[in-house]
Amino acid sequence: MKKFTVKVLITLSKLNNSAKILLVLATVCLIQTICVMLFNLEGSSPSEVTIRSAMSSIFGYFFGHQCKNHFNIVNYNSQIYFAGFISFITLGAIILMTWLPINQNTPATADIRNLLLTTVGFLICMVKQVDE
């Protein structure tokens, strides 16, 4: 586990400052969305919609196609680690949703489910690409 953590930290240290800031912003947006979901808040205020939209945009960027035309293994590794981290967080939130009396029809819960499916799809795609 220690070796894996060191590898993740080295990979993340190679990201540029903009990418690091986006990772932090996306994580804060995800935590806010999970809190809204867990505390059974409606989540339809303009501020909440803005937070979820920003989260979706950032995750869409990180899990989308490469910006550069050449293969960049460091970028792939950072995307893979981030997708794995987000997958575990969203899966944990969804498991909590099934155990707690939470309204599963709110916009926040839908975004959490969609994010889990997006990250799992991305990881499946990366298994095929990195192995080739």
Number of strands: 0
* Count of runs of 4 or more consecutive helical residues: 5
Name the assembly state. single chain
Q: Evaluate the radius of gyration.
A: 16 Å
Poorly predicted spans: none
Count structural domains: 1
Average pLDDT over all residues = 80
Q: Termini distance?
A: 26 Å
- Main sheet characteristics: none
Give helix and strand order, one letter per element, not per position: HHHHH
Estimate the global geometry from the Cα principal axes: globular
Strand content: under 5%
Question: Helical proportion?
Answer: over 70%
> Structural class of the secondary elements?
mainly alpha
Compact description:
By secondary structure, the chain is mostly helical. Helices cover 78% and strands 0% of the residues.
Question: Could you explain the architecture of this structure?
Answer:
With 132 residues, the protein is mainly α. It contains 5 helices and no strands. It has one domain (2-131). The mean pLDDT is 80. The protein is globular.
Protein traits:
globular; 132 residues
What's the structural blueprint in terms of helices and strands?
Elements: H1 2-13, H2 17-38, H3 46-62, H4 73-99, H5 107-131
Helix pairs in contact: 2-3, 2-4, 2-5, 4-5
